[in-house]
Specification:
The chain is α+β, with helices and mostly antiparallel strands. The protein contains 5 helices and 14 strands. A hairpin with a 5-residue loop joins strand 4 and strand 5. The longest helix has 25 residues.
Length: 306
Amino acid sequence: MSEKTYGTLKKRVFDLLFEYAPSDDTVFIADTDKQLVSSRMPDAVNSSFVRMSESLPLWTKTSIQKLHDFKKVFTYNGICDKDTPLEFELTVDRIGVFFRFFGKGNVIFSDMDGNPVLTIECEGSGSISCHKSVENTDYTGTCRVYTDGNLCVKGFAVYENDSELDEKSLCAFNETSFELPEAFDRLVSIEASSGKINRDKIYVCDGYGFICSDLCRGENELCIEYKRKPYTVGAQTADDFVFDVTHLEFEALVCLVASELCRDENADLYARLVYKYNDLCEGIRSCNVSKKGRNTFFGAKIRRRW
């Protein structure tokens, strides 16, 4: 069994609390109190992880992510409505569709005889919305697109679907997307081979990051630095659940969780544990500084994390 499991964490925390139990008539962890402390353990662990994540370089990860190279069938940046239909050659029958819309109605794909081959229903929300979907038209040839109802479409893009296309990854014709790493929480920085990119130029949604194509022209991958989501545990978490942390980080976690559990009952122990926790934090920060390289993008290539 790994030394950095939830079961080990609980045992270490209880060992600390037993070792420093008060010697007077009030015993902090008597058998009757142990269940109460156990019930408080998940909340103490979760709050400790959040605190460590925000105050330490904990779970700041680096990852190389590939940019999607969508094969475009048709793009149009103007307005499409019932009075201004679009025409283009639909070369494949399996497609990905992206557009922005306002209002309520249907986007209708038809052949040149006016027979509908695909209808996409749009429910207006009172503001501009995005539509993304993967469709099968069972049709190739000249296609006409128009709307009905009170619906206006802008930024229309149709992509080839290679049967693995995820509709959540679809974006406007002048953007590209990349998959976010597992347990991604928030973006810290982003870099291409040509240099850093302003992170305000990137937005994330549904497990993908989106960036203007002009900012990464000629690139096929980006290096992102990001915060990983803190672990969360609950009453059903198994004792063999493993925390992916260093030994130093695990020691700091043990001290912080124990301090949270004895804060109100044993002020002396709380102070000692906080002092030890702060000392361990200095060690964690020192280790992190020594690991940083000068070239983030090419250094990260050695540590691929897809």
